Amino acid sequence: MKLREPRTADMLVYAWLVVVIYVRLATNCALAARELARGHGELGAAITAFTVLHLLVVVFLLIFLSTTLSLGAGGLDRRRLTVLGASLGTRVAAEIVDSVAHPMTIVVGLFIVPLVFPIAHMPDAGGIVAALVIAVVAVFFAAQALGGLLSLSPTAHRLAAGFRFLFAAVMLALVAANLDFNWDAAGVRVTVFRTPFLLDDGSGGGLLAALRPWSPSSRVVGGGVLACAVFAIVCLGLYALALCATPRPAATAAFGRSAPTAAPAGDATDIIRRKELVLLLRSGPALVAVAAGVGSAAWLAAARVATAGIPLLGCFVIVLAQFGAAANLFGREGRALQRYTLLGVDWRMIFAMKNGAWLLVTGGVMVPPIVVAALRVSVGAAAALLLSAALALSLCVLWGNISSLLFPSAERARRGGAFVNQLAPFLIAAIPFAIHRDVAPFGSAGFDAAVAACVAVSIVLHARLRARIGRTLDAEIESVVARF
Question: Which residue has the higher pLDDT, 40 or 249?
């Protein structure tokens, strides 16, 4: 059941994103079709071109996230065919059949349907629709190829985490952006996060003109079927190369087995604390967090205009880098749960040691930018920054304990984590900004009081959660012992 819960959580968040983006896309298509039907050709063409670009970006993000997260078994099927010694042609054919039969293909087809209505009012509608379908197929294979390349080796799989964070942020930005259109005699503008951008001024200026030399959307709107076909062939070739580069996994890797590890000796709590600190300090995300903390402190110290946004950005990058360790406490330890059970260590102590080590490393990296903020900005800004960091750390620990039980995943598994864990850091970081916008401005007494109240609530919830975890796991162990 625990293996199914990440898929369920991913599908719920994924479906919500698809519905919201589809509604926005269909609204833009209806607007473009209305303006084209009224005879406003340049206005309707500009909105249609931007909507095509929006569609291609969305298709790439949806397919990549579906490939690299826990939503599909394409990687597992690919390894099965590789172990059986299937030829490259067989694997490509099997992957294409799997892609056509995948539910995401139907979703992509539904995204294309609203664009048919504005295109029907444009000259050479048939050629534009054909170019659109070919371009979507090309983007589909490009996303599949990138997802395959990022699953070839453990190193590539670690790089895939950064891509997932980046693309998840872009997907959230597409959902949060308004993407409203305004037009007057000066041209057509699109509003993104309440900021207008010029799309087309009718004389070769604007965003669409800047994107025209390299964007596939300009080829689609121009009816460039041949250019889109060449693009699709290149993407299909990259997809085939990604399949050709898939290594033959060993028998142990194919069946997901890990080598047994010896149980630690000595005082268990001290060993857990020391081991967790060593694992955190030697990890790549810890180096990124240290670089972000030191870099933001140096940036703020050398900046001509000292603002609180610099240390806020540094602390957010630190949380983003370290969140994977908080959300997967037993990922590096293989059969850690069985070892700790045999040692007889209290579960609340285990989680306390791991959470304490994570807080020590992550919170320690946040100290330099907070200290420099107190010196360069103000003591009030530093206090607000300190409370915001405390809130983010407490919420990361709270959700990390829940995630470590619901979505357990060994690092050797080479599969994407739960999608909710890709979104959680952004949602946690959004809470102080929401308090700044809706309650009291950053650095004020009201802001500090609101954040301190949130920190107190999270600490109480964490204490209750630890007690609940201890009782639940002890009850499960006693039931197993009783059966024996």
Answer: 40
